[in-house]
Amino acid sequence: MKTLKNLFLVAITASIISCSSDDDNRTIVPPGDGGDIIGSELKGDITADSKLIASVDYIMTGSVTVKEGVTLTIEPGTTIKAKSGRTDVFLAVERGAKLIAKGTASNPIVFTSDASSPKAGDWGGLVLAGKAPSNKGLDVQSEVAGLLYGGTEVDDNSGELSYVIAEYTGAKINGEQEFNGISFFGVGNNTTVNNIVVSNGNDDGIEFFGGSVNVTNVYCANIADDMFDWTGGYTGTVTNAFGVRNEDFDAATDDPRGIEGDSNSSDATATPISTPTLNNVTILNLNPNVQLKAGAEIRRGTVATINNIFFAAYGDASFGNRIDTKDDKGNGTLTIVNANAQGSVGDDKEGGAINGSVTEITDGFSVPADNTVEFKSGVGANLAAFDWADQNFVVTKK
After folding, report:
1. How far apart, in Å, are the Cα atoms of 297 and each of 259, 285, 302, 333?
2. For residues 380 and 371, what is the distance between their CA atoms, to the nearest angstrom?
3. Planar angle of CA 253, 256, 262, nearest 5 degrees
4. Considering the chain, what is the average pLDDT of its residues?
């Protein structure tokens, strides 16, 4: 706390933050031509190209919004702590703005809670809006953060997220609105997203609301609701995705799933239809007290393809259904290639269509007492891609 206090005094001295009469409308003003934000407190609008630097211990005490036409760059190794226990603490990137958060394996960018004993839901999360199509319309308001998104630019560019960790996210606003770890609203496919970790989230890990952004190497650990989620006409590709619920993580909604895919809950025929492709996916449950409702629930008009997926539940952990394409608001269609399963992962529930079959396997996979997962090359996600994240999840290869 002493360190933060001293940094706050530096911020005042440097006069890099200007306050209006209403503290909630604070504007973050970067000093000099370089745009470095050197004051520790982050809250308000970023209205000029700016940079967060690794040498400053930042604390986000309210909403931070990157305004249209502005770029926020975050240096590798930067840590941003969010004030815990509030629903108005999040980072938002408006349509037409950019976030360049380009960490490295040795120096990732970390968004976390400031609590001494952090927990899921301590703060909001990351929210990006873009100009790519949504089947909800051209100017849609985001579920959280109040951003407009949607448009006709499939190749829109909202910046880059590489080697980014977001943890203890998912603040609950009310019974209908909660933050995800990272939310992509109409984000286009010229946006670069790779090597992402969302852990200890109180709602979904990553959710796509329309858009066409592609994601590579995404790891969702200990997520209370759905690990990977899409809706609104999402058409991108997700490659190498690992979702796990560890045995000591008990936060859960009524229906947590590995994958939940929707197109449009009001009109399953609305275009563009959600048609994502997922390559190399592992959905793993290690918690005997929390059943995943489904490994993959593909519904409400979604037409999805999954190449190489592994569903697994070890010990007394389980799934309700392995794959479910039936829904009273519209069935889904799933094509699967090279699908494998082990443990108590339930049966498939076909209301729409499931093209392809799942192979039950018994060899090569186990979780010994030291919580080590053994896996075979080429089955599901390449878990070794997440070694940099240091999430206390040990992997051995057979």
Report:
1. 6, 16, 10, 10
2. 18
3. 115
4. 89
Q: What percent of the chain has pLDDT over 90?
A: 78
pLDDT by residue (tens digit) across 326-352?
A: 999 999 999 999 999 988 999 999 999
Neighbours of 153 (CB within 10 A): 17
Structural contact between residues 107 and 133, judged by C-beta atoms closer than 8 angstroms: no
Q: Are 155 and 180 in contact (CB under 8 A)?
A: no
- pLDDT, greater one: 7 or 46: 46
Supply the pLDDT for residue 316: 87
Reported pTM: 0.91
pLDDT band, very low/low/confident/very high, at 101 (cuts 50, 70, 90) = very high
Degrees to nearest 5, angle at CA 259 with 394 and 199: 45
Tell me how crowded residue 347 is: count the other CB atoms within 10 A of its CB.
12
Instruction: Report the distance separating Cα 229 and Cα 212, nearest Å.
Output: 14
Element containing residue 7 per DSSP (H, E)? helix 2-14
**Residue 156, C-beta contacts closer than 8 angstroms, at least 6 positions apart:** 130, 131, 132, 186, 187, 188, 189, 190, 191
Could you tell me which residues come within 8 angstroms of residue 231 by beta carbon, excluding any fewer than 6 positions away? 207, 208, 209, 210, 261, 262, 263, 264, 265, 274, 300
Nearest Cα residue to 161 out of 130, 184, 194 = 194
> What does the pLDDT read at residue 365?
61
The rounded distance, in Å, linking the Cα atoms of 204 and 259 is: 10
Amino acid letter, 157: N
Cβ count within 10 A of residue 190: 18
